Amino acid sequence: MVRPMLLTLALALAAPAAAQSDCRLCYSDSGKPGERPLTLEIFADLNFAKLALTGREGGSAEVDAASGSKRTGGAVMNLGGMAVTGRGRVTGEPLKEVRIDLPQSVPMTAPDGGTAELIDFSTDLPSRPTLDANGELTFSFGAKLVLRSGRGGNYRGRIPITVDYN
Questions:
Q1: Which tens digits make up the pLDDT trace of 50-70?
Q2: Where are the alpha helices (DSSP H) in 9-115?
Q3: Count of structural domains within the chain
């Protein structure tokens, strides 16, 4: 009988104050006169809830940005709990179109040296995201967690998200 190893996951995302001071997340001073700078606030971290590894061959878990549903594959088993999509809020010039870029991949590490990777990021954004009349836009994002080493752990990583006017 294979005994499942407990896998916990927490993603450390930029806190609101850090996001506003990070130059990758704000519109530069060289923008158009009178245009409000963009800010990004992450108010919900991406969370895969409870997972377990049932073998050494690795596996994956995915949280869908649009529905919030969780899927697992390989030697990763869903132990329940509610998966949470990441949630962000962009503020800036009202009615302006923006571009929100998520990375191709993000390395994840556990305190014991285990590694994993987040890939295949998705959002619920429309094809042409635009700030509303108040200069705000909220969105959800998800990703796929890939465990290749077959090691459980408390994995953490930072997801760099960039925002700019189109």
A1: 899 888 888 999 999 999 999
A2: 16-21
A3: 1
